[in-house]
Write a structure and sequence with these properties.
The chain has 283 residues and is of the alpha/beta class. It folds into two domains: 173 residues, Rossmann fold, CATH 3.40.50; 104 residues, Orthogonal Bundle (Helicase, Ruva Protein, domain 3). Helix content is 36%, strand content 14%. It is built from ten helices and twelve strands. The strands form four sheets. A five-stranded parallel sheet has the order 2-3-6-1-7. A three-stranded mixed sheet has the order 9-8-12. It has a two-stranded antiparallel ribbon with strand order 4-5. Strand 10 and strand 11 form a beta hairpin. The longest helix is centred in the C-terminal third of the chain and has 15 residues. The relative contact order is 0.14. GO terms for molecular function: ATP binding; DNA binding. This is Sigma-54 interaction domain-containing protein. It comes from Methylomagnum ishizawai.
């Protein structure tokens, strides 16, 4: 699945090399990156290329679970353990036994649950709600965060001992604004993807549109780029997409764009640089 993580940017390529090494190691991984950078896709790739690939892969978004239910979701429960517990609950850790559990937005774990997760990481044992004995569980944990966990530790919002347990193999995904040379590659991939999905003719970007997109900061990162491309693939199918077709938050380019190694570039009359000969399709 690493082939689904697209990018030629040197920092991104270095991340992929580290991730491939981490995949083979049966230790905890902490993925850091802004929203929309692809943390879950990287976690899936780590599992897929690990010795646990044939075993279960479970996920839990810590920010999406009500605090009162988080312990049950993670560790499971016995019937009658709390109001509404009409049946036994397996919990994500037991569901992932032998495989991998991906904890997204791990910075959202409430303090009491942080202590119990630390106990699991130290002992490999869990105690479901309503049970008096512990159970052994064999799970590799991959955690992800878009927060500065070191700062949260310093502020007392996140346990230092849990942070060190999670941060055995740290992987940081660079934001898209730090890899503008990957925007043409990703945009071309998404336009082909959505043209095929919606059975429409593929739209292509002209030079000015591609330069504007490469200059844009992409606060939503790859997810935002994907959404823009999906919209254009639907509304501009078979057309050449210009700057005027882009969302209003993406202005026309403001400075000469630096040529990117591996992409065809020619000088333009008004001093900027262009990709290709007027419209841009990534092969």
């Amino acid at each position: 699945m690493f082939e689904l993580l697209l990018g030629r940017n040197p920092a991104f390529q270095a991340l992929l090399r580290d991730a491939q090494t981490a995949a083979a190691a049966n230790v905890t991984v902490l993925i850091a990156g802004e929203t929309g950078t692809g943390k879950e896709l990287l976690a899936q790739a780590l599992h897929h290329h690990s010795a646990r690939a044939a075993k279960p892969y479970a996920t839990l978004n810590c920010a999406a679970v009500a605090e009162g239910l988080a312990e049950s979701e993670l560790f499971g429960h016995r019937r009658g353990a709390f109001t509404g517990a009409d049946a036994d609950g397996t919990g994500r850790l037991r569901a992932a036994h032998g495989g991998t559990l991906f904890l997204d937005e791990a910075d959202s774990l409430p303090p009491a649950l942080q202590a119990k997760l630390l106990r699991f990481l130290e002992s490999g044992e869990i105690q479901p709600l309503g049970e008096t004995t512990t159970r052994k569980v064999d799970v590799r944990l991959i955690a992800a965060t878009n927060a500065d966990l070191e700062a949260q530790v310093a502020c007392g919002l996140f346990r230092a001992d849990l942070y060190y347990r999670l941060n055995v193999l740290p992987l940081r995904i660079p934001p898209l604004r730090q890899r503008p040379d990957d925007v043409p590659l990703l945009a071309g991939h998404f336009m082909r993807l959505f043209a095929a999905r919606y059975q429409r003719r593929e739209a292509v970007f002209n030079v000015d549109a591609m330069i504007a997109m490469a200059e844009y900061a992409w606060p939503g990162n790859v997810r935002e780029l994907r959404n823009v491309c999906e919209r254009l693939a639907i509304f501009r199918a078979g057309e050449v997409v210009g700057v005027g077709d882009l969302p209003p938050e993406i202005p026309g380019y403001s400075r000469p764009y630096r040529p990117v190694a591996g992409f065809p570039v020619k000088a333009r009359g008004r001093g900027a640089a262009g990709f290709g000969m007027g419209k841009y399709r990534v092969n």
